[in-house]
Amino acid sequence: MRLVFRILKIVGLLIGVLVLALAALLFVTFSGGAPIRDGQRVDGVEVVKDGFVSAFIVDIDDHDVALVDAGNDGQAKPILSALARRGLGPDAVKAILLTHGDRDHTTGVLAFPQAIVMGLEADIPLAEGRELRGFFKFFGSAHPNGIKVARPLHDGESFTLGNLVVRVFAVPGHTKGSGAFLMRGVLFLGDSADATKDGKLAAGRWLFTENPAQNRASLRQLAQQIEPRGGEVKAIACAHSGMLTGGLGPLSEFAAHDR
Ligand SMILES: [Zn+2]
């Protein structure tokens, strides 16, 4: 019996150490970024804070909006409250543009059945739950989650939703189908980059990034691609940190110093 207790004690201790190590790793990974400011607005774009992640409401016109990502809440409560403050319901959301297929960005999608869901082609199986990636594979198996990405998007395309012009860029690395969008002067980067507290742009958090070198190369290439439209960019929006309002500067600076 004594031996059993001793083994249980050691196992308990080991589990405790593992949990602490994981907590420390998560803390290091998610600290250091600029804080997300719920309700922050930049010309027709509103930040919605959903715990540790953000989604964005982008105006199409007075009564229709698009979302960039749909947050981590199963009922999309933070987004629905933000819409309700404008007197809008879930049906006002005409489109949801997914920066990538990770669950913390897609879980709220099903709360908006009228919206057409869009995302880069390579991440569609991930967004629909038919595929798992990276170390998430160790924590379960793939199950279709009811999300249907009806409109696959491709690098370099642009299209309109009412008066809203959407430009699409592929930025593989965080996931293979990560995308960036330029709308209303805001460049949405999802998890491909992060805003630091001192107003700089950093590459996506390595712990969750499938291919960090490719992620950095994608950001450098995006800076080049977007430079001709540099004047249009008023702000850069990353999903897990606050919006940077210094135009394209932080991305250009990242690209100039990253090798
Ligand atoms: Zn994320």
Write structural notes for this entry.
The chain is of the alpha/beta class. It has a single domain (38-257), classed as Metallo-beta-lactamase, Chain A. The protein is 27% helix and 25% strand. The chain has helices at 2-30, 77-85, 103-106, 124-127, 212-226, 249-257; strands at 41-42, 45-50, 53-59, 65-68, 93-98, 116-120, 149-153, 158-161, 164-170, 179-183, 186-190, 193-195, 201-203, 235-238. The strands form three sheets. It has a seven-stranded mixed β-sheet with strand order 1-2-3-4-5-6-7. Strands 8-9-10-11-14 form a five-stranded mixed β-sheet, with no helix packed on it. α5 (212-226) packs across α6. The N and C termini lie far apart (60 Å). Zinc ion binds at residues 53, 102, 104-105, 191, 239-240.
Number of helices: 6
- Unreliable stretches covering 5 or more consecutive residues: none
Q: What CATH first level would be assigned?
A: Alpha Beta
Going by helix content, strand content and strand pairing, the class is alpha/beta
User: What is the molecular shape?
Assistant: globular
Overall mean pLDDT score? 92
